[in-house]
Design goal:
The chain is α/β, with parallel strands linked by helices. It has a single domain, classed as Aldolase class I (TIM Barrel), CATH 3.20.20. 33% of the residues lie in helices and 18% in strands. It has 8 helices and 8 strands; from the N terminus they run βαβαβαβαββαβαβαα. Strands 1-8-7-6-5-4-3-2 form an 8-stranded parallel beta sheet. α2 runs parallel beside α3. The longest helix has 15 residues. It is globular, with a radius of gyration of 16 Å. It starts with a strand and ends with a helix.
C-alpha cells in the first residue's frame, strides 16, 4: 500500500485554541500540519505568518509542518518560515521571479521544497526542476478560501503529475489540497495522490455530543485509502 499521509489544514481550526487543536488532530492519526499562508495580494485573503509556526514548535508540536505559501514574492518570507521550524515550504511558480533559485534557497535552509499548481496552471515548468522538488501540490480549488468544492478536472492533472514523478525516479510526494473529504479521498488516491490536505472536513467534524470528532473522520479517511487501488 502507498505511504499515504493526511495533512489537516489549520486554516479551519479554532485559532483561540490552536496548540490544543493541533495536538488533538495529530493524536487522531493525522501525519502533517498544513499551513495555508495568504498575503491578501497573491490571493484575496490574509491568514498566518512565521510567528504561528514558531509558536506551535515552542508549544511542542513535533509533527512535520507543511507551509504552503500563497504569497508574492516568496523569497523574502522563505527564510522566516525555515527559521520558525517549517519542514516543507511550497510556493506557486507565479510567486517567484526565479523558480529554480527559490527552490534551491528552501533546500539550503534545511527544508524540503515544493511547487504548487492552481487548477488552470500548467505543470510544464516541473520538467526543468524535478531534481529540486520534494513535493508537488495540486490545488483542487482556486486558492484563497477554505471550504470550497473539489474541481473534478484535477483528477486528470494528478495522473499527469504522477507519470512525471514516476518517470523522474525522484522521491517526490504528490499532494492535493481543496475539497478533500471521506467520500472522494479514495478516488483522489487512485488518481495518484499520496498526501491529502483536508481542512473543514476534519476540523469541522462533530460527534453526537457536538464535540470535535477528529478520530472518527481521520479513521474513515484511512479506511477509504486502504481500499484504493494503486
Amino acid at each position: 500500500m502507498a505511504d499515504y499521509k493526511i495533512a489537516p489544514s489549520i486554516l479551519s481550526a479554532d485559532f483561540a485554541r490552536l496548540g490544543e487543536e493541533v495536538d488533538n488532530v495529530i493524536k487522531s492519526g493525522a501525519d502533517i500540519v498544513h499551513f495555508d499562508v495568504m498575503d491578501n495580494h497573491y490571493v484575496p485573503n490574509l491568514t498566518i505568518g512565521p510567528l504561528v509556526c514558531d509558536a506551535l514548535r515552542k508549544h511542542g508540536v513535533s509533527a512535520e509542518i507543511d507551509v504552503h505559501l500563497m504569497v508574492k514574492p516568496v523569497d523574502r518570507i522563505i527564510p522566516d518560515f525555515a527559521k520558525a521550524g517549517a519542514s516543507y515550504i511550497t510556493f506557486h511558480p507565479e510567486g517567484s521571479e526565479h523558480i529554480d533559485r527559490s527552490l534551491q534557497m528552501i533546500r539550503e535552509l534545511g527544508c524540503k521544497s515544493g511547487l504548487v499548481f492552481n487548477p488552470a496552471t500548467s505543470l510544464d515548468c516541473l520538467k526543468y526542476v524535478m531534481d529540486k522538488v520534494d513535493m508537488i501540490l495540486l490545488m483542487s480549488v482556486n486558492p484563497g478560501f477554505g471550504g470550497q468544492s473539489f474541481i473534478p478536472a484535477t483528477l486528470d492533472k494528478l495522473r499527469e503529475a504522477r507519470k512525471l514523478i514516476d518517470a523522474s525516479g525522484y522521491d517526490i510526494r504528490l499532494e492535493i489540497d481543496g475539497g478533500v473529504k471521506v467520500d472522494n479521498i479514495r478516488e483522489i488516491a487512485e488518481a495518484g495522490a499520496d498526501t491529502f490536505v483536508a481542512g473543514s472536513a476534519i476540523f469541522g467534524a462533530k460527534g453526537d455530543s457536538d464535540a470535535n470528532d477528529y478520530d472518527t473522520v481521520v479513521a474513515a479517511m484511512r479506511a477509504e485509502l486502504a481500499k484504493a487501488k494503486s
